[in-house]
Amino acid sequence: MEKKWCMIATWEMAKEGVEKGSSILQDRGNCCDAVETGVKTVEDCPEYTSVGYGGLPNEECEVEMDAAFMDGKNLSIGAVAGIKDFKNPVSIARKLSENRFNIFLVGAGAEAYAHKNGFERKNMLTEESKKIWEKRKKEMSEKNLSPYDGHDTICMIALDKCGDMAAATSTSGLFMKKRGRVGDSPLSGSGFYVDNEIGGAAATGLGEDIMKGCLSYDTVQRMKRGISPMEAAQSSVRDFSEKLKKIRGYSGAMSLIAVNNRGEWGIGTNVEFTFVVGNSEKVRVYRAVPMENKVVIERLKDSL
Ligand code: ASP
Question: Which of 17, 109, 166, 195 supports an S-S bond with 31, CB 3.0-4.6 Å?
Fold first, then answer.
């Protein structure tokens, strides 16, 4: 029997990618193709300065990217971290997910693999991103500013009409990060997780904190206990932010998207956050604003 399909993604920048992924799902296409196509759309766009081409560079002015792919049917995972000068890290991650061994490659090893497998090379640093880097370098020396403002990961989760699920992430990580720094986005259970039998979750925000709570896996496990995706994602973020605050007085930004295998979706966040949902109704952009003990969600834009 044909099932309900759904796609959810982090940040407003995902809109065009979710539109493309949604049309794949609407036409009875596969969830793996939907998330890969959706994430590639964002990677290819130079205006988004936190993902793929035009991503903001590290301290040394190099664009080092992290990406992952997970198939919820067989729990296959592929991931790359700290990869430079390849056009679509998410596609390299998907290819790695076909392997039994060597599924997560970093730096030069990931680049050699991508080259050998014919993935397209590209200088991912744009003139625009280089200018932003130069300006920040100057500001940092003059005003003692925090170097790490400026990041956002594209995460997408899809449920197709056959009931299969997949998730993918891609990011250039924290602006001005140390060379070799890896965030949560390519880490299974932290940046993403999906299981056909339950649902999927994926995260954006401060990777150093998200990975301390394995928030994507935690959210999926909460859904396994029968909790709705909305309650699962919100309680996961809330409980873990509170724990960090109790331990050390503060918590980094964390935003989670979630969808279960019935196509019900939810989000949890401790900062203002935009996200995109595609289903048989429409592709819609939302804004979530955390307040006291709840998160207020408002509709921003619909696709035509
Ligand atoms: N989570 C990403 C990282 O830490 C950044 C982000 O999503 O804003 O690399």
Answer: 166
pLDDT of residue 3: 80
Residue 1 confidence (pLDDT) above 70: no
- The tally of domains found in the chain comes to 1
Q: Is the CB of 184 under 6 A from ligand 1?
A: yes
Residue 1 counted as domain residue: no
Say yes or no: CB of residue 241 within 6 Å of ligand 1: no
Establish if 97 belongs to a structural domain.
yes
CATH number of the structural domain spanning residue 220? 3.60.20.30
Average pLDDT of the residues in 64-79: 98
What phi and psi values does residue 272 have, to the nearest 5 degrees? -65, 140
Query: For residue range 229-244, what is the model confidence (pLDDT) as tens digits?
Result: 999 999 999 999 999 9
For 227-241, letters b (16+ CB in 10 Å) and e give: bbbbbbbbebbbebb
By residue range, what is the domain housing residue 252? 6-303
Q: Which atom of ligand 1 lies at the shortest distance from residue 66's CA?
A: 9
Q: Which of 41, 126, 153, 204 is catalytic?
A: 153
> Which atom from ligand 1 is nearest to the alpha carbon of 210?
1
